[in-house]
UniProtKB/TrEMBL annotation:
Highest taxon above the source species: Bacteria
InterPro entries assigned to the protein according to its UniProt record, in alphabetical order: Abi_alpha
Protein name: DUF4393 domain-containing protein
A matching Pfam family: Abi_alpha
Amino acid sequence: MGTDLTPAPEITLIKSEMEAAAARVAERAMNTTLDGISGVLGDVFGGWFGDDVKQWRTRRLITTLIKTKEHLEAAGIPIENAKSLPMGELYAIFDGCSKQEDISLTEMWSALLANAMNPTNDKYIDPSFSRILGNLSGLDAAILKYIMDFNSKRDALFAKRREILNDAHVNKQMKGGKSFDLMIDEIEKEFSDWADGEHQGQFKGFSVENISYSISNLLRIGLIYSPEYTIPENLIQVGIKKKTGRENELVADDRRLRAYLRAMNDQAGAAIEKKSTLQSLITSVRPNWPMIQRNPTIQPAYSLSGLATRFLLACSP
């Protein structure tokens, strides 16, 4: 900032190959020619920001665009063959990524932009994804990734278990090797150790309050939900109400349903304000293989919604 007597210093970004590469990505996305990367924010956002803010956001944008270029090149797409995007969609992405310092979220922004610009991409890119990503914290993203990685590892475990059981059915008995029960026990233990280590590694530095707040945010956005087995049955009671001198009346009692919906509303945010029980990210389950006698394995207490699955695919390289 400056005055009439002391004008604000001119902000000059250092010219470099990195900035030139970022400018090429921005030019292709905007289908225009820019006077260096420093002109991007001016072209997109006009004179909304002062020099200090503009420089800070430009640096964030450069980081994202360079990562976008890397994703496109890894997919075999030269920058000149990438797609340009509608300005409304591009505005939302540039605005969001230029305000982001979190490394994991920057990676998601760059992957989202790269997938949108990839002409061979078969991932569904909904215009709302940039808005969703802009509403996430780094912890929110870590929770989503943890659930996604857990599901992937669990699917691999189930596939390996089926393979062992198929071998057991064909061969009946192993000769000179491990028993089938022991082989299943080993892969179950390996998975259990991974789940525990992954949870500790990802969330050890976060308080239970912060994790609960993130869960509330993800519930509000509609990216996670409680597993179906936790939903109580018979939320609506239907019966016949007898009336004197009149025909019987079919009635539905939805009080349980309304109470359940109120509880879900609390879980998605109001519960935090009312200082009620904080939400936990994980729960414990025992191995479902009868020969295994071990401690329970932790697993996410929530499932990804279909929207979350599509969103994470769009924000992944």
